[in-house]
């Protein structure tokens, strides 16, 4: 099948956050016109898009009318009005990832069920319609402590997740439809990004290691390559390829895994889009995840995922106790360090733990990049102007 590429192709991007902005930066190299819709007129992608449309991702009319303006549509986040996407797809608009895939990933229960139905290793789980049913299943010995509660819809970056270790923590239960997973004894968390185009070509990036900020419950650092045995690397890549084919994916799929204390690999969750775990690829691989996504959805040949140098990505997040117009303290100092690459998203205001940008650090060894990271962490602070 031929590619969909043509000069001035109108690429629609639903949601205009940092992922959309970085995709636009790559799209400009292909002379692609970028149309963005977001409810926030100051969204990071709004200033560099060819055209910006203000609208709600969850509103049928906003999504449908936006889609009528473009030649090809993609997403930055899964929480989009699915009925509008189905209507557009039925009318012939090319949407990648496909609407059927987005629908699965809007619901964590559907996602987990897909893994089970396709024999993908994942932690055991049960579905509960609300917190009362969770209590009932605890009393009925169906759910045992400790467990992880995940809301089926809307959660990301640590939101919509509660870890319940014992009865004394039941007040922390979240309200709404949930899946309850047994708490895995986690040795390490890793991620793999796989790309697939309409011709069936597949490209897989090396597994990365995710290092968390425990206070914010979000990923603070991404190390590539991950410090894992070769057998785990091989298994993770095999699962990534199986999932890409099982979903009949066109685009990118980011897969997060648990490695337990016995060396077993479990799929935690996935996202059919560009992902925080792939930001290091901008500065460390031949083909960034953003260029790869464009190649995949345009049905162009996929690019090499070869990594030049070890790399670490450090999320720039808002410091606690600061809120307001953003100021990046210490930027001059960190830019003196060779191999430090700064990516600021363009959000005007900061608040505690808000993602404001990221820093990629490359070096000749893992030890070297961690030494550079220490300098970065000691100097850079995301604060508000006094």
Describe this structure in words.
This protein has helices at 18-27, 60-67, 82-90, 99-105, 108-117, 131-139, 230-246, 281-284, 289-297, 331-334, 366-379; strands at residues 10-14, 33-38, 51-54, 72-75, 94-95, 125-128, 147-151, 161-164, 178-182, 186-196, 202-204, 208-213, 218-224, 251-260, 265-271, 311-317, 324-329, 340-344, 349-350, 355-362, 381-384. It is of the alpha+beta class and 386 residues long. The protein folds into 3 domains: 10-95, 3-Layer(aba) Sandwich (Rossmann fold); 124-182, ATP-grasp fold, A domain (Dna Ligase, domain 1), CATH 3.30.1490; 186-384, ATP-grasp fold, B domain (D-amino Acid Aminotransferase, Chain A, domain 1), CATH 3.30.470. Strands 10, 11, 12, 13, 14, 15, 16, 18 and 20 form a 9-stranded antiparallel beta sheet that branches. It has a 5-stranded parallel beta sheet with strand order 3-2-1-4-5, with helices on both faces. A 4-stranded antiparallel beta sheet has the order 6-9-7-8. It is globular and about 60 Å long.
